[in-house]
Amino acid sequence: MKPIRAMIVDDSPTMRAMVAHLLTLDPGIEVVGAAAEPAQARAMIKELNPDVLTLDIEMPGMNGIDFLEKIMTLRPMPVVMVSTLTQRGAEATIRALELGAFDCYAKPQRVGSDGGKLASIVRHAATSGRRGASLRLPTVSQARAATPSQDYRPAANTMIAVGSSTGGVEALLTLFRGFPANCPPTVVVQHFPAGYTTSFAQRLDRSCAPTVVEAQNGMTLMEGHIYIAPSGPQHTEVIGTASPRLRTLPGDPVSGHRPSVDVLFRSVAKMPMRSVGVILTGMGQDGAAGLLDMRRAGARTIGQDEASCVVYGMPNAAHAMGAVEKQLPLGQIAERALELCRA
C-alpha cells in the first residue's frame, strides 16, 4: 500500500520538525515537504501533490485561514489545522473547520504528549473520501436543513442528546439551523481539544435561533437552550428527576475521549424523560454503546447517514450494533428529532 504523502506548513522550524517527527512515527505516512509560509507552500503543493496538508493558523504574509480559503476554492484537499491553545487560536480554528478543514490539532505542549493523535487524524483525513469539490460541505447559508416551524411546541419533560466528532462543526451548524427558538433542551458532546468549546458555543449562538451556551455544572435544562459540553478534563452528564440538570465531573477518558458521548448518552438513558439521541459524523465509536443504552431504555435514536458524513465512523459503529433506529441525511435530522419531541 502506498504511504500517505503529508506536507507541513508552519512558520516555526521547531514546530515543523516536531510535526514531522509525530507523523513519521506512523510507517504509513511520509512527510514529502515542509513550508514556512503560504507563498512557498503554494509552489510546493503544485510540485509535490500531497495527500494531506497540516496548516498553522498564524503565519507571516498570509494567515492560515486566508490560505485555507484559497486552497478550498482552487485546489480542495484534506487539511488538518494545527493551532495554539489560545482564545484567538480557538476562534480561528472554528472558522477553519467551517471553511472545510478536516479536523483541528492542538500543538503539543511537550514532546511525547501526543500519543499518536496527529498521525491518526492525518490518516483518517487521507482516507475519508473527501476529495475534490466534495471536501467542502454546504455552508450554513447553503445547508438544506429544515426551516424551523413557527408553531412548534415541545412536549414537557423531553430532551435531545447529540454526539459528534470530525466534521461536527459544520454538521452541528446545519442541524441547529433547523431548530426553533423554543427547541427542547439539547445537550451536545463535540470532540474538541481543551479550550475550544467556549468559542464554538458563541459561534453557534450567533448562528441559531435557540440560546447556545457552554455547559456548566448545576445548570438546569431549559426549553430553548442548547448546551455544549466543555472540552477539558471532565465529562458532562444529565442528572435529576424533578428538575433535570447538568453535572460536569472529572474522570478518565471513556471510549478514548473526555468529554465522552458515551458518558452523556448513558446518563440520558437513566433519565425518566422522553429523549432523542442523535449521533453524527466522527472518527471511532464513541457514543455507539451509549446510544444503544438509550434505545434499550425506550429513547428514539437517529444516526447520520454515510453519504452526508465527513467520517462515517461513530454513526456506522452505532448502526452496526443496533443502536440506531433510523439513519437520515444531515439535512433531515433536525425535523425528525423535533417531531419526536413535539407536544
TrEMBL record:
NCBIfam families: PRK00742.1. It holds the Pfam family Response_reg. Its main location: cytoplasm. InterPro entries: CheB-like, Sig_transdc_resp-reg_Me-estase, Sig_transdc_resp-reg_receiver. It catalyses: L-glutaminyl-[protein] + H2O = L-glutamyl-[protein] + NH4(+); [protein]-L-glutamate 5-O-methyl ester + H2O = L-glutamyl-[protein] + methanol + H(+). HAMAP family: CheB_chemtxs. Residues 154-343 form the CheB-type methylesterase domain. This is Protein-glutamate methylesterase/protein-glutamine glutaminase. The active site is at S165, H191, D286. Its EC number is 3.1.1.61, 3.5.1.44. Keywords: Chemotaxis, Cytoplasm, Hydrolase, Phosphoprotein. The modification 4-aspartylphosphate is found at D56. Coiled coil: none annotated. Phosphorylated by CheA. Phosphorylation of the N-terminal regulatory domain activates the methylesterase activity. Involved in chemotaxis. Part of a chemotaxis signal transduction system that modulates chemotaxis in response to various stimuli. Catalyzes the demethylation of specific methylglutamate residues introduced into the chemoreceptors (methyl-accepting chemotaxis proteins or MCP) by CheR. Also mediates the irreversible deamidation of specific glutamine residues to glutamic acid. It comes from Sphingomonas quercus. Residues 5-122 form the Response regulatory domain. SMART domains: REC. It is found in: Cytoplasm.
